[in-house]
Amino acid sequence: MNNKNDTVYLIDASIYVFRAWYSVPDDFADPRGRPTNAVYGFAHFLCEVLESTQARHIAVAFDEALESSFRNSIYPAYKANRESAPRELKDQMGWCRQMAEVLGLPCYSDHQYEADDLIGSLARHAQSNQQQVAILSADKDLSQLLVDDDYMWDYARRQRLNSDAIFKRFGVYPDQIADFLALTGDTVDNIPGVPGIGPKTAAVLLKHYRDLDTLWERLDEVSFLSLRGAKGIAQRLREHRAAAELARRLTGIATEAITYQPITRRQSGDLQQLDKLCDELGFGRLLRGRCQALIQS
């Protein structure tokens, strides 16, 4: 049984950096005139999380593999529909990581594995130690990692989703999410699914067959299901099986991205480096004092 007093909080940094970029006025700038709105907002977010959770175990995953992920070698069109982040935002990513580090938060990134994979590896490590996992993100892909009383936490919306809530939302359980997305496709990541297979149909198929492997083994039965258009669905599954199997390689999270024993225990922050960073960014006493109090707590 998970130890709720030893919860591991895993932060998907990119979504909160982007939210800060779009929500904090762009007139925030350092003494040299460079924009700092994203790092300012991200710092506030980190402070709120630490103040509200008093987390002892926490880690932050950053994306460095948006164009160099192993998934791009499998499927070059993976995420090709996404526009590159503005230069003004890219320049702030490094500061966001520095801010997390001076607060004592272990940070992870990799050029081959995405933040999802790093979070997945950290989650599996925590789960193997019987620790509860809270994933701070709104990315539905990450819900496939939930077991027992773990939960997704969309912090900005103050919304928590456990396994039952995931089922109510998608009609499948967390361990079926990757198969679900392989059937429906995922427009956010530019992953095509099986044409004509929407969320409701995918949920029915997975309720009946549990996973894709069983679906393929019993594909001849699909035509006889009490499902509208069952014969056509069976035909589309036959015709697009290879595409669905390719998609499944993309939608699954690589939970062995971190091969060493990771650190998720919050470390001692660095007051001197905090002052140096705040001076560089032109942050005032309010945010600086808030961060100092967290380091000293």
Protein architecture, described:
The chain is an alpha/beta fold and 297 residues long. The protein folds into two domains: 3-166 and 254-296, Rossmann fold; 174-251, Orthogonal Bundle (DNA polymerase, domain 1), CATH 1.10.150. The chain has helices at 13-23, 37-53, 70-74, 87-102, 115-128, 163-170, 177-184, 199-209, 212-217, 230-239, 241-251, 271-281, 285-296; strands spanning 3-12, 57-61, 107-108, 131-136, 151-154, 159-161. A six-stranded mixed beta sheet has the order 3-2-1-4-5-6. Strand 5 and strand 6 form a beta hairpin. The mean pLDDT is 95.
Essential attributes:
about 300 residues, alpha/beta, Rossmann fold, 2 domains, 6-stranded mixed sheet, 13 helices, 6 strands
Task: Walk me through the topology.
Layout: E1 3-12, H1 13-23, H2 37-53, E2 57-61, H3 70-74, H4 87-102, E3 107-108, H5 115-128, E4 131-136, E5 151-154, E6 159-161, H6 163-170, H7 177-184, H8 199-209, H9 212-217, H10 230-239, H11 241-251, H12 271-281, H13 285-296
Parallel strand pairs: 1-2, 1-4, 2-3, 4-5
Antiparallel strand pairs: 5-6
Helix pairs in contact: 1-2, 2-4, 2-13, 4-12, 7-8, 7-11, 12-13
Spatial arrangement of strands, main beta sheet: 3-2-1-4-5-6
> What is the gyration radius calculated from CA atoms?
21 Å
Shape: elongated
Q: What is the arithmetic mean of pLDDT?
A: 95
CATH architecture classification name of the largest domain: 3-Layer(aba) Sandwich
Helix content percent band: 40-55%
| Annotated CATH topology of the largest domain | Rossmann fold
The number of helical segments is: 13
Would you identify the regions where 5 or more consecutive residues have pLDDT less than 50? none
What is the CATH class of the largest domain?
Alpha Beta
Question: Whole-Å distance between the termini?
Answer: 30 Å
* Broad structural category: alpha/beta
Number of domains in the coordinates? 2
Fourth-tier CATH superfamily name of the largest domain: 5'-nuclease
N-to-C order of helices and strands: EHHEHHEHEEEHHHHHHHH
Query: What does the main sheet amount to?
Result: 6 strands, mixed
* DSSP strand count: 6
Strand content: 5-15%
